[in-house]
């Protein structure tokens, strides 16, 4: 074939291709989200990840209340786009320390299978502890996490998504640090939430539970050795997760119980504030790390959860309490009753249907 004939055939093929119909682009059914309430959306690796779908996606925002960019995972019911007049209850699910809403765990089937409600996983920082820090002038920068979540994220979600924006249709739960955060927020804002849950949560920060208080202090000061205690569990510690270190007083003032100087810690203690949960549905899940032989972290946390249950029982406040010990009877994923994702997945398999049946049915 001559060069001139090749060129002629090339032109012909190009012309034919131009005449062929162009395949229609996939029309996204993801709802548009408008900036507001102090939140400005930005593009990030998490917000543009190929794993994002129309019903399970991460957005990244900036806020003057907290330093840096923050990820928020939004999980919509599968019928959200198909039912434009339908409104849904909302679960705010708070992650642990150190972690991030873009982690694959927060897109797991137990969370995404909640067909009756919207689930929102907001960033809480690696060691933000779901509170407005006493000291805003540390190397960690602005740290008004309560303001970020309560005054910005919740109204942003209600304004942009078809939520049922009432207490009866709003739940909050969390893992580890997020378990503390869920109870802390529910106790500070009982007008916002009707259900609260803790999965291996730090539920006691009073002076009689100094081990748990010092775990919080270790995350603040970047003393990761205390947090990465010897364990047979599968959770690896990241030596840089808590950098830069800040002063032990940055969160709630001095943690040391001398002449009541630690009063802010006692004031934030979930057990001490148990009475504020009256009227809410309360759910607590905890293991014991096989008595600490498999995972000493969960063993530490078990006592705080037990003290919370005892306090609630004494007040006559009902609580759904699951202590699965070494996890042997808690399902195939919970090994050793440890402080790890397999046990939390089993917790969610039990918790999510309970929340869906308790929250106000969609209108």
From TrEMBL:
Keywords: Signal. Gene3D superfamilies: alpha/beta hydrolase (3.40.50.1820). InterPro entries: AB_hydrolase_fold, Esterase-like, Mycobacterial_A85_antigen. Transmembrane segments: none annotated. GO terms for molecular function: acyltransferase activity, transferring groups other than amino-acyl groups. Pfam families: Esterase. PANTHER family: DIACYLGLYCEROL ACYLTRANSFERASE_MYCOLYLTRANSFERASE AG85A, ENTEROCHELIN ESTERASE-RELATED. This is Esterase. It comes from Streptomyces atratus.
